[in-house]
Design a protein that fits this description.
By secondary structure, this protein is an alpha+beta fold. It is built from 26 helices and ten strands. The strands form three sheets. The protein has a four-stranded antiparallel β-sheet with strand order 2-3-1-4. Strands 7-8-6-9 form a four-stranded antiparallel β-sheet, sandwiched between helices. A two-stranded parallel sheet has the order 5-10. It is elongated and about 110 Å long.
């Protein structure tokens, strides 16, 4: 390392130029990050996911577009007991007055269709789009969606609420509900409903409009994610600046780590965007948030360790160049080890099935690697170019200081150290550990264990909801609440069940009767299964009393013996079969569709359980009712979220094993102490469980009634980041213990290393926790939970695990508390006879 350190310091100007060139290239040539991200959420599932297979099967069977998301414009009138107005209700003198139903069909529908045409044929001018062109385009395959109102011959009756006070207008879109390609369409619909003055003048007085639906929820999620990213980056920089100035009280010295990490972030984002542009890797939309926060926290920590050792060398009356060379010589190996554990641990996410986790593993690992290289090359170059001006306003003349320590004398912390308060506090803690390591270790472990047990028992209680993540003022949340007053919550996104039986022809009446029997038996269990309604070829308008009444009305309108009545019945039947039976060969009539509407909306955790129960019930019913083998495929928002749960549960188990094994092997490679490395892994894993338990308890206490568990992403990101980064501080402590052991006894080396690394590791913990706290600035609940959990976990590692649980264990180990097993567990000292004074506290020098 001496040769490497010497080359870095000697050619500091060359390194500075190299980084400047890389920075300029990244800024000038890399595509914008937002332009190369992969849209959607379901598209990140592996291809073998059941919902994706079901979507593929749907396209093979039906000739209509696959509905993957839905925007709903709800129109309601709550001030009138009779509900929405119709022209027939008006008196003769009010015949020219616009009724609510006429407004829906003649104004709202046409304006929504114009929006769809605008995005299906971009070259056309929406202002010049005529009613004739709308009618012509209605049958064109280039239209990206359709608008359905109460006038639809089959589904129209379902779009008016039973109390007649509300009606839904459905805008069907073929993109995934979180696909960013929906954003412009939803924004235009939103502008129409809330901001278009001409349109709003046409709304009948007292009529309320709102928007909801899966596509609107997805749009709001994406908007809040972008806003969270902006807030996170800004607050991260502010927090880091404030904390660095508080530590150093030297603006330029505080600025150097920020410059380093800023350059790193720009280069990393440029590299990732360029790789995504050439399809080498994929990127999801909020990846930049995770990369920025973790790289800022880790990069600043690396710089702090280097600068702290640089200051310590200067205090030994060494000149600037030699001090920097010595600092690099002592810190390069620990920094590589620290970054190595983080890169290996977080990099294990590339072995997950869910592509978002894969991309996060790649992106964050690249960020950490570049931050490490920059700390070892760019930061020394910046320190050399600044010289003694780095310590302004308290610049040293010849020798920067004459008191040993890890924090600059010009800092606020150093003044506290000069008063002896901070120094005495670490010595007091070291004395307490020396006096009673076993009791201290036991007390802290017992205090933390209840939270670890909470984490164990609630480990799988995760929230996969989307609406619960959004703020109450989001358009989709407001619209959904309005819609729920008149329609079942599950209407937001029904689950489509496809039944494939090669022996049956579902177009035949007798086999429609078989589907009737299946529907009847399923509906009989509706309370247990949480079902509100079932739609099928046998019950095209549903199975509720209202649906059956509407079906009877539809049949009555087509009754009669004449040719016209027969044609009407044939047209209705053809429409039903086109909706519920496949048309594409060779599957075609061998496939039928059953739509399930559940009590809960598709974005709640309970909807997954309801779908699972319904599928289990179908597996029991189908062999009894249908001959031969019937294959079941489920698709829709709930099916997609169910797959996300199944995939991420498998990923979590895989990553838990890989991260623990990978980080352990890196620790063994660095520390060459297998038993001690195992203990370090155990302590950080225990810290992770405690953090999960505390986070669960805090967010439950904030909203006991609506708390459904931590967001599903928290468990994965918290585990990989906390386990990997949590070992950083242990590595620096153990590395310093090994250094001190060269000049003193094993026990005293532990206590001396604790006192000498206390201030800097605590400072790094504050910096890292502060950067993670910035995640809480966003409005998404899952991001807030992750920010709290990461910040708390880092502080727990910084102030409990590293200064108490690890030193206590090492002191007990060196004193052979574990008898003959002590050497196997990593003790380096030989056992001694215990005397009355054998456990007296050591003096820390």
């Amino acid at each position: 390392m001496k040769l490497v350190s010497r080359l870095i310091v000697k050619f500091w100007l060359g390194w500075l130029i190299l980084w400047l060139v890389a920075f300029v290239i990244a800024i000038a040539t890399a595509p914008k990050f937002s332009e190369v991200v992969t849209p959607g959420e379901v598209d990140f599932l592996p291809l073998h996911a059941e919902s994706l297979q079901a979507e593929h099967f749907f396209r093979q069977s039906f000739d209509k577009d696959l509905l993957r998301s839905l925007a709903i414009v709800s129109v309601r009138r709550t001030s009138r007991p009779e509900g929405l107005t119709s022209t027939e209700e008006f008196s003769e003198q009010d015949r020219d007055r616009l009724s609510d139903y006429d407004f829906i069909e003649n104004i709202l529908r046409q304006r929504l269709e114009q929006i769809l045409i605008k995005y299906s044929t971009p070259e056309s001018d929406p202002a010049e789009t005529s009613e004739e062109s709308i009618a012509e385009t209605d049958q064109d395959d280039s239209v990206i969606g359709t608008v359905t109102t109460y006038t639809d011959r089959l589904l129209g009756q379902l779009l008016v609420s039973n109390d007649k006070k509300a009606s839904m207008v459905l805008v069907e879109l073929p993109n995934d509900f979180l696909d960013i390609r929906n954003a412009k369409i939803i924004s235009d619909i939103e502008d129409l409903v809330y901001n278009d003055r001409e349109f709003r003048r046409q709304i009948p007085p007292g009529l309320e409009l709102s928007i909801s639906g899966t596509a609107t929820v997805g749009r709001d999620m994406n908007v809040e994610a972008v806003n969270s990213a902006k807030a996170t980056e800004s607050i991260t920089i502010v927090l880091v600046v404030v904390m660095l100035i508080g530590i150093y009280r030297a603006p330029l010295l505080a600025l150097l780590p920020l410059i380093t990490v800023f350059v790193v972030i720009k280069i990393v984002m440029g590299v990732l965007a360029t790789l995504a542009y050439y399809n080498v890797i994929g990127l999801f939309e909020s990846l930049d948030i995770y990369v920025t926060v973790v790289t800022y926290g880790a990069g600043i920590d690396y710089c702090l360790f280097l600068i702290a050792r640089y200051r310590e060398e200067l205090e030994q009356r060494t000149n600037y160049a030699d001090a920097l060379e010595h600092a690099l010589n002592y810190t390069t190996s620990p920094l590589i080890g620290s970054a190595g554990t983080s890169i290996v641990g977080i990099g294990m996410m590339i072995f997950t099935e869910h592509q978002k986790f894969q991309q996060a593993g790649i992106g964050i690992s690249v960020g950490l690697f570049v931050a490490l290289i920059a700390t070892l090359t760019l930061t020394p170059a910046l320190l050399r170019i600044c010289g003694r001006w780095a310590f302004w306003p308290n610049m040293p003349l010849e020798k920067p200081g004459d008191q040993p320590g890890w924090v600059a004398r010009s800092s606020l912390l150093s003044r506290v150290m000069e008063s002896g308060v901070l120094d005495r506090s670490w010595k007091i803690l070291a004395a307490m550990i020396s006096r009673a390591p076993g009791r201290l270790w036991r007390n802290f472990v017992l205090a933390m264990t209840p939270f670890a047990l909470i984490a164990v028992f609630s480990y799988n209680d995760l929230s996969y909801g989307l609406l619960s993540e959004l703020p109450d003022e989001a358009r989709s949340v407001i619209g959904t609440e309005a819609l729920k007053e008149h329609f079942p919550a599950g209407t937001l996104g029904p689950t489509n069940i496809l039944l494939h039986n090669q022996e049956l022809n579902f177009l035949q009446n007798d086999q429609v009767d078989l589907i009737r029997e299946v529907s009847d038996q399923l509906y009989a269990e509706r309370e247990r299964l949480g079902l509100i309604d079932i739609f099928s070829s046998a019950y095209p308008l549903g199975m509720t009393p209202q649906g059956l009444e509407k079906q009877a009305s539809l049949d009555a309108n087509a009754s009669g013996t004449g040719a016209f009545a027969a044609a009407k019945r044939a047209a209705t039947r053809a429409r039903i079969m086109n909706q519920y039976v496949g048309k594409k060969q060779p599957l075609a009539e061998h496939v039928t569709r059953i739509d399930l509407v559940f009590e809960q909306d598709p974005f709640t955790n309970g909807s997954i359980e309801q779908l699972e129960n319904a599928l289990q019930e179908l597996k029991i019913i189908l062999p009894e009712k249908l001959p031969g083998e019937t294959k079941i495929h489920a698709l829709g928002p709930t099916a997609s979220i169910r797959d996300m749960k199944l995939v991420t549960d498998r990923d979590q188990l895989r990553v838990n094993i890989l991260v623990l094994v990978g980080v352990y092997l890196v620790l063994v490679l660095i520390l060459k102490k297998p038993a001690v490395s195992m203990y370090l892994i155990v302590t950080v894993f225990f810290s992770y469980l405690v953090t999960m338990g505390v986070t669960t308890s805090v967010f439950w206490a904030m909203d006991p009634e609506n708390f459904a568990g931590l967001d599903w992403k928290v468990r994965m990101f918290l585990f990989t980041i906390l386990i990997a980064i949590g070992e950083d501080y242990n590595i620096f402590l153990v590395a310093r213990i090994d250094e001190e052991r060269q000049t003193t006894t094993p026990v005293r080396s532990v206590l001396r290393a604790l006192t000498k690394t206390g201030s800097i590791i605590s400072s790094c913990g504050f910096i890292m926790a502060g950067t993670f706290c910035s995640l809480m600035a966003g409005t998404l609940l899952g991001m807030q939970q992750l920010g709290f959990a990461l910040a708390f976990g880092v502080l727990l590692d910084t102030f409990i695990v590293r200064p108490i649980l690890v030193p206590c264990y090492l002191v007990m180990l060196e004193r052979h508390y574990f008898g003959r097993y002590s050497r196997l567990m990593g003790a380096t000292s030989s056992p001694k006879l215990r005397t009355r004074n054998s456990h007296r506290p050591h003096t820390i020098n």
